Amino acid sequence: MPLTGKHLLGIAGLPVADIELILSTARSFREISTRPIKKVPTLRGRTIMNLFFEPSTRTRSSFEIAEKRLSADSLNFSVGTSSVSKGESLIDTGLNLQSMKPDVIVVRHWAAGAPHLLARYCGECAVVNAGDGMHEHPTQALLDALTIEDHKSEMEGLKVAIVGDITHSRVARSNAILLKKLKAEVWICGPPTLIPVDFEQYGVQVTYDLEKALAEADVVMMLRTQLERQKEVFYPSVKEYFNLYGLDRKKLALAKKDVIVMHPGPINRGVEIDPDVADGDCSVILEQVNNGVAVRMAILYLMMGPVEETTR
After folding, report:
1. Confidence of residue 64 (pLDDT cuts 50, 70, 90)
2. pLDDT grade, residue 309 (50/70/90)?
3. What is the per-residue pLDDT for 205?
4. Per residue in 159-211, pLDDT tens?
């Protein structure tokens, strides 16, 4: 059973049924990563292009591994050695790559809406959003949901605290939308300077008090301060930021005893999270990375259509 839409551009337009389908499919794909030979012929003969206009470790690597484990042929687009460096537009780049007949284009871009633009002009192939500007990061939210469900019996009613630089975080937006769709209680916390004034539109609780956000939380998701996107100074010093919003064991004690701690990476140790917490028993950060491969395998598989189409 394929996904409802041709593209995966964001969580906002993704039906709950599709979310549940992706997560259940990802669970079945996780077993492949435990085999001595980590490969299945599911997408043999399919071609996937990875267009990453921004640096990435986890997302890019997990997409590449997912493609290889499904036996797809993949091309990794290098911006620095492409015609983009000569002034070629995103649309022209997409149209030229589409003419080579790929099945899927995976794109990460610094500009919000770039995947939507590609999907509009390059409609012959499917487009997957691997993160666009400060807009959305749908595959990250899906792998986060899978990780939460691995540790909690059900999503409905869970208190999830998302803490940090909300303004510049596409992860925060996609997670807020997805978690609310799955009926979790979402709390957003950070300095007033790093939370958009209209973030309540996502149906979340907004607070600038970390203790309120952490109180009886089932899940704590820490976000780094994205200095590369910040054009201004949003807090006096790193030390003050950590004192007010950094997660250490003392603050974590406010949450439930079975709380899990998450982080999409990369981690800035000693800024938003203490190393003792990042590496502690409550941390599921490396599980998130592992689940990222399975979720991206599931998405690529489901976007190619029914089994009989992908295996002939």
Report:
1. very high
2. very low
3. 97
4. 999 999 999 999 999 999 999 999 999 999 999 999 999 999 999 999 999 99
Report pLDDT digits (tens) over 122-170: 989 999 999 999 999 999 999 999 999 999 989 999 999 999 999 999 9
Q: Which single residue is written with the structure tokens 């002009």?
A: 121
Q: How high is the pLDDT of residue 231?
A: 57
- Residue 150 Cα to chain centre, angstroms: 17
The token duo for 70 is 């499904």
Please identify every residue annotated as catalytic: 58-59, 86, 108, 137
User: Is the sign of the CA dihedral 192, 196, 200, 205 positive or negative?
Assistant: negative
Nearest CA among 233, 216, 227 for reference residue 272: 227
